[in-house]
Input
Amino acid sequence: MLWVPVQAVERTISVLRRYVRLEAACFWYGLRDGKENGVVKAVVVPLQANRWGNYHIPSRSISAMSAATSPSGWVCLAQVHSHPSSFVEHSS
Output
């Protein structure tokens, strides 16, 4: 089970709305308990290249997210991304 505070949902929506007509991503970081349940503590938005049909997150941005969150013991609980229109197609 993943517990997501309303503030994290609001922040996620706010972040993704900035990327009009582009795909964009953010990550939910937080803690897991011994039963694999998670609690979201932060919405992290990495440096990324955004396009209409995809986005790219450079490896240095992934490393920066990890470095910023690991001192708190947080792990990546979910990746959330947008689609710029009603058309949705995932890569094979």
User: Anything to note?
Assistant: The helical segments are 6-17, 59-69.
